[in-house]
Here is the input.
Amino acid sequence: MVIYRDEYRLYDFGPHHPFSPVRLEMLVSLLKALGVWREPLAPGEATREDVLSVHSERLVKRVEAASRGERVPDLEHYGLATGDTPVFPGMDRAARILVGGTLEGARRILAGERRVLQLGGGLHHAQYDRASGFCVYNDLSVAIRHLTRAGLRVAYLDIDVHHGDGVQWIHYEEKEVLTLSLHESGRYLFPGTGHVHEIGRGEGLGRKLNLPLEPFTEDESYLEVFEALVPWALGAFRPDVLVVQAGADAHHQDPLADLLLTTRAYERIFRLILEYADAYTGGRVLITLGGGYSLDAAVRVWALLYHTVHGLPLPGALPEGWLRAWEARLGKPLTPTLHDPEAPYPEIPRRREIEKRNRLTLERLMELLRTHLIH
Amino acid sequence: MLVQDVMRFPVVTVEPGVTLEEAYRLLLQKGIRHLPVVEEGRLVGIITDRDIRLATSRLNPKGACPECAPVAEVMTKEVVTAHPLDPVEEAARVMRERKIGSLPVLEDGALVGIVTGIDLLDALLKLTGVTEPSGRLEVRLPDRVGELARLTGFLAGRGINIHSLLSYPEDGDRVRAVVRVNTLETHLLAEGLRQEGFEVLWPPKKPW
Ligand SMILES: [Zn+2]
Here is the structure.
């Protein structure tokens, strides 16, 4: 099942901002041009109460005031009106529409649906008391809380190139939520967190997992650690449902980060996620989008995701008419095939060293977890 | 950042007549390692868990009796102290040079706090800005007037808030600046800085 409505595109920080609604417009038009678009379920907006299930009243009040165009002096303390997360008229509603989509996904899962793809959301940086990194409200946490309040154990998997800090901190002390984030190391990259030593606190101890990867990590190394860690953690935690933030910014074309995944790795990751869901959660999986700032790459990665979720055969070449139209509109050439070309970037000289360090990070994480086992 | 911003208070203290055993229990119970010794409101010494363990070890031929020896027998009497208005780096320097793990903080002769190595690590974390969601830029600058201003001016021009800015001298005539910035877009910033002629060490240029 796919959840989407055109109003997702109201979440718009302006024409020069990387978190662009054009990504969704391009994606939907591509799926239509490929003839695979099925009418999605249009969600309602999340209510203020829904948002307050994970955010502070004082943050929500400020978002509302800023949305109405009121002058609020302390917005920056709440992560708003910054270069990354500027305010715009109607921001509160636009954010609640995205939250509504992911929340609807959670409701559908509770109603018996298995695979739900939410073509939006994934605002994993938003924290209890603070907007951050393009994220106003945390749709993922609202959905997760809805699921745990219904008595489900939730495993959250975050493959966005940035650490899923907002979701992690919101559920940091909860025993019914496993968070698992693979990301480029926060030593330099935003938001600076996601160290292996962040493993939860109190009842959440041993249930928050982070695998920070070296810059310039490539397909093979990523898949190696992914396949070692994810099924192991899911097997130990035994969740009822898997929630996935499928950011596409670990792709090698992404302008904001340095992981070097190709579409081939993404195809494998998506297939594995569905396999893991079948093996560990009775097939129940809710997938959202997330970061992804190369239009060319993000749209192809998410088209791949759409096809994989529906079990559709993958197209080779992209529709000619669609390519021409978007190349004209963007004023630059686009990759003409769904997959990246073979060897799309030059060889990385430090490859072996990077693989070794990623393996070592995985070992350190698993070593730590042996003493705080996650059952 | 001053000592008063990072020191702990109130301070757990003992009197000189308390036995080593009692003092050790107190350390365990409070989860601390340093006990200032106070007599009639005056600081007269300091004792650590290590002092007690060394003094009472059965490997120590002149070992003290834990149940009967008073703290006064084992404590360090010449205590190095700090003032609440001392800069934290000065406290760090004294602790490093004297190889000690804590500084009782005195104001007008009264014990008002204590600073330990852990508190200084907290101070370091705060100074580096890692407690805020941020990205990190590392830039090498010529060691001369106006270079840092050029860097911060560039960031201000892009509307970027700086969470923290550390700079330290490199060999000879250069300075390394480490900036934590409130943005996901450190790559685009780095590119812009390079175009302006800055030597950006991180994030690295992708090799294509
Ligand atoms: Zn991201």
